[in-house]
Amino acid sequence: MSIARYSTGRKALVTGGAGFIGSHLVEALLRSHNDVIVLDDLSTGTLQNLRFRSRQLKIIKGDVRNAELVKKLARKSDFIFHLAEFIPNTKQAGSGHVIKFSVDNPFEDLDICVRGTLNVLEAAKEANAGVLFTSTAAVYGDTARKPLRETTPVNPISPYGASKSAGEVYCKLYANLHGLDVKIVRLFNVFGPRQRKYIMYDILSRLEKNPRILKILGSGKHVRDFVYVGDVVKAIIFLSQKAEYSGEVFNVGTGVPTSMDEVARDIADLLNIEPRLEHTGSSWKGDIAYVVADVSKLRRAGIVPRYGLRSGLRKLIDWFQQQGSQNHES
Questions:
Q1: Domains and CATH numbers, the chain
Q2: Rounded-to-integer distance, Cα 85 and Cα 231, Å
Q3: Which of 138, 139, 184, 301 could cross-link with 249 by S-S, CB 3.0 to 4.6 Å?
């Protein structure tokens, strides 16, 4: 079976489905002729991401913290993809990072990420529906400069990482205590079209304004594992259908370390410009210096990323430029 497909004729609930990753997941599910319900409060997600002509798509504006609403939607679903989390809604470059925002707003981050996840698990238990929970590499914290395995002890250094770690604990608990079909994916640095914040979007926005100078947050030496959104969606869909992985955790990344300066240079090269890089010298609290996945478990399951950094960047740049041209026309 191709990992791009999801069993047809099923009914999926996608929390946070109007967001960056969620909308790509919804698109893939619809492409395989499934009924999809999106639950999103549209605080950062946007209906612009869900312009799919499909009678099989239903969009509900609501909060994952509304337990009765989640239960009502779960009763209509075979499987719940739980992506909803606390993401800031800001256009200011450099200010929209979920980790920084969780440091400034820890109670709201806790409420959405933990209580929201518990609501989903309770609803899934009552509806006998499966769950895939999107966690984050931030649960690992600041570790040694080596790839992170699923068995690496978690030690979050941000409220966001802590709340996602708590969500994982509840997922495993419901799998063991109630026999719930739950999978956990720890996403690394996902990028691609429809991502309207974070480093790559910030770089493109800054270069659009001034292609001669590019300011990078921190030293430029922070290392990340950038994984294209299409590969993430394929992994999510594939794992959601594998009952044998219930209660298990999978890293979803590429295993390829890339510094912030390398990302900036690749983007500039694809744009055919040569900006001078400048660095702020400092970053926000909770920022991690080195985050790279060990993806051997994912590969053993049969999932290999299709896109490299530059091929994914090309798609992101094409989308970004298309958005700019549309804005100029409107």
A1: 11-193+226-254+294-306 (3.40.50.720)
A2: 21
A3: 184
Instruction: State pTM to two decimals.
Output: 0.92
Instruction: Copy the structure tokens of residue 295.
Output: 């993806």
Residue of 6, 140, 160, 228 marked active site: 160
pLDDT tens figures, 80-132: 999 999 876 655 444 447 777 788 889 999 999 999 999 999 999 999 999 99
The reply to whether 290 belongs to the active site is: no
Q: How far apart are CA 126 and CA 66, in angstroms?
A: 16
CB 139 within 8 A of CB 158: no
Q: Are 149 and 184 within 8 A, CB to CB?
A: no
CA–CA separation, 222 and 187 (whole Å): 17
Are residues 164 and 134 in contact, defined by beta-carbon separation less than 8 angstroms?
Answer: no
